[in-house]
Amino acid sequence: MNDPSQHKFEGEGMLGALHKFFYPPTSKYFWYRRGKVKQSPLSTKYLRFLVLTATMSVAGSGAVMFGIMLLISLMMSEWFSITRTHTSLILSAFAEHKITNITQAPMYQNASYVAEKALQHDLQTSEYMKTLISDPYFIVSWMFTAGTSTLLIYYYCASALHNQYYVDRRDEAEQWKCQPKKFPTDALFLEEQLTGCFNGFVSGFAGTGLFFYHLNYPFLKFHYTMELGWGRFMQDCCLVYLWIDFYSYWMHRTLHHRFFYKRIHKWHHRYKQPTAFGAFAIHPIEYIAFQTAGIWCAAIFPMHVMAFLVVVTGIAYENMKDHSGVHFEGTLFWFPGTLYHDDHHQYFHLNFGVTLILWDWLFGTLRQKDRHYNENTYVGEQDKKVQ
Description:
By secondary structure, this protein is mostly helical.
C-alpha cells in the first residue's frame, strides 16, 4: 500500500488551513495532492498551446477555420482537379466582404454564404463551394488528414513522456515512477503502442467525418462567432468540462460492473503498469462509448466550437499523462496527481474519475485506507479491513 503521508499538504497560513479543510490529513480517503514530480515541461507547453489556440481561434472566429480549410483545399488541388483559379476567386469573394474586424468573419461551416459571393464572379466557383462540403473525395481526404494528424500528435506526446522517463531515467524509477519496481513487458508495451495509435487515428478520422455529416445535416449546436462574449465562451468551457468528466465517471464505473468488465474493460486493465500509450489502448466498444460524451454534449447544449475543441483536447492530454506511470502532481490546482489513475490500474475497481476526484468522493468510490481492493472485488464488496 502507498504511504498515506505522501498525500499531506505542508502549506501554512490561510492556504494551508483551507487545504486541510477540504482535504483533511486524518481522513480515510487518499486525496492524491502530492507527487514525486512537480510537473512535466510538456504539460506547460501543452497548456500554453491550448490557450494560444483558443485565443487565436476565437479572435479569428470562423475566418481562421475557413482559412485553414481553404489552404488544405489549395494543397489538394492537384489531387482532386480543384483549379487554383477557383480558389483565387473564392479568396476575392471573401475579401470583397470588406471585413474590418476579424471577429465579423463569416462562419466556417457557412460555405453557402461564401459561394453566393463567389457567384458574382463565376457560377462554376459558386457550384464548387456549394458542393465542396458534400464532396466525398474532399471529405475523405480531410478525414485521413485529421486521422493522421491525431496519430502523429498522440505518438509524439506519448513518446516524449516515455523517453524522458522510461529511457533516460529508467535507473532512477524510485524518484519518478508510481510503481517503481514494476514495468510492462516488451510484448505488452508494443501492443499498447499499436492499439493506442490505431485508436488515435480512428478518433481523428471518424470525428472529422462526423463533423462533415453535421455540416450537411446539422445536429450539433455549435456557434462560431464571439457575439455572446468571452463570459459565454468560458461558460461553454466549464459546461463541456463538467459534462465530460461526469459522463466519463459513470461510463467508466458502468464498465467496471462485473458483466461489462469481464467482456470489455478487462482488455484495458491488462496494462497494470500503464504508459502514456495506454490512454487510447482500449476495446473498440469502450472507445465508442467514451467518445459519445462530447457528441451528446454538443448535440444538447449550444456552445462555441472552440470551447468544445480546446476542452476535449486538454482532457485527451490529461488522460495520456494519467496513464504515463510517472508520478506527476496535478496540472491545475484542482486536478489530482497521476497516482490517482495509476492506483485504478493497480487496484482496479476504484477512482473512476478523469480530472476530478469529486465524483468518486460523492459516490463512495475514492480509494480508502480501510478497504480491500483487487480485480475480483467489485464496488460494494470492498467494505472490509485491509489484511
